[in-house]
Amino acid sequence: MWREILILVGLSSLAGCSLQRTAAHNLGFEHHLRHGDNSLEREIRGDAHAALRQLCGKHNKSFTEEYELGFSDGYFDFLDRGGPVQPPTLPPTSLRRKKYLTIDGQAKVRDYFLGFQYGGQIAESTGRREFLTVPIVLSDSPILPPLNITVIPSPPEPQPEAKP
To answer: d(Cα 70, Cα 74) in Å, to the nearest integer?
Structure first.
């Protein structure tokens, strides 16, 4: 990978320093952006872990490893993406291995889905989602009413050509 980057930098020098400066800026920005995303994800997953530990202590209960993974994923999913709390169609790839293709394995996958749904519900109840979004300003342009067309007219009949 580094070889390709060095070749790209070498070739870009032929195009002028503006391209190199822009590329360096973009690479730095992407690194900074990814670091911020990872930091936020670690913070949210830490909060999910703390919320689950609090529930375990309150009810004097422990959960399966798969339930805890689902809880963390559901908690993070709701706070990161919002929307209705619905488990994914497929479990993560770690829960699609051979050891989960048994009766006990299938029960653990169901634990994941239950944990996901409950984690999302707990995250929703925190009210924290609205503070993890970027506020935007909408324009005051008027909303146009929908067209009131009930019947689409048929195309006109072709007229016979007049003879000279």
So the answer is: 6
Q: Is 88 inside any structural domain?
A: yes
Which pLDDT tens digit goes with each residue over 45-94? 888 888 888 887 777 777 889 999 999 999 999 998 888 888 889 999 99
How far apart are alpha carbons 92 and 106 in whole angstroms?
13
What CA–CA distance (Å, rounded) separates 116 from 122?
10
Give the Cα separation of 54 and 16 in Å (integer). 58
Could you tell me the two tokens for 40? 């936020």
Give the amino acid at 96. Answer: R
User: pLDDT: is 111 or 162 the higher one?
Assistant: 111
3-state secondary structure at position 97: coil
**Average pLDDT estimate for 94-112:** 93
Range of the domain at 128: 46-132
* Tally of domains in the chain: 1
